[in-house]
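We give its fold:
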Amino acid sequence: MKTNNLKQLFTQYKILALLVAIAIIWAFFSWKTDGGFTSARNLSNLMRQMSITGILACGMVFVIIAGEIDLSVGSLLGLLGGIAAVLDVTGQLSLPVSVAIVLACGLALGVLNGYLTAYAGIPSFIVGLGGMLAYRGVVLGVTGGATVAPVSDQFQVLAQGYLPPAFGMVLGVALFLLAAVLAWRQRATLARHNLPVPAAWRDGLRVALTGIVLAGFVTTLNSYEGIPLPVLMLLVLFGVFSYIARQTVFGRRIYAVGSNMEATRLSGINVRAVKLWIFGIMGLMCALAGLINTARLAAGSPSAGTSGELDVIAACFIGGTSMRGGAGTVHGALVGALVMASLDNGMSMLDVDAYWQMIVKGLILTLAVWADVATRSGQR
């Protein structure tokens, strides 16, 4: 009985537990680096690093919720980033044209993965594995196996630009007001449907904590250069994907497909179309991440995105997305991405050997999946 209560408690407050874990990780690395880890400059760099994994996680969380997996995202990021570099350096195309072409390529390749999975009947694991090899081979051919550099200053702004401090403050206030409105609307909806409404102090405390986090976030980043543009893009995507997951018919169908695909199909929902478009969305996220990664490095590297799929999948599992499908949240995946980025950044600052970094990340991924299995085994 006590074990079941502990499982329910952990499941309910999993995100809170992750936030506590992040606080511990940050405190440890700050102590070991004499405060260097939590400096405004490093936190700005950390947020920029995390944005690439976070953008990919926004798409991957839908894929996993639907009961599928995509192992090709790292190679696809490298391919699309390499195409962007070639278009900018060799083709000397304008930034809008280059971005449009890369996004179109990402959508097309994502839809191809979805078609092979949903309509050709090939397991997504095999499609992703084949894509991992094929896309890496294509990027080697596109770049000639050499780094394509340097990209234009205009292109670099995508990842190295900052939002002016005044706009950052406005953004923070707007996000706080949005959180308050959403909390109020949720309470009104529960009351309208005669469902239990949480105590007002709980929602008030949650909104207040959100405000404190936003104030610290904006103030810290403004004390350096401002909010990095990739972080701004990630915040926008977070809002869009959260809305899709919670407020749209398409989002509900994604959860339904992952929970019970056969029952969803029998209810009249086009399961194949749902899977096709979640892979298409995943391709778009790879294109965005590839653009930002190339802009951040100021070059297109044939090795870009190597093992990136592992960080993204780990971020989703750490954030509470079930490996069985049917359960997961966008905000959980982003918290998981922050965990992975914090570990990468902190261990790099401490000059931890690469093999130890891989061991630590592997153990954390295994622990996250074990936690999912342990907490859900008692719910059957």
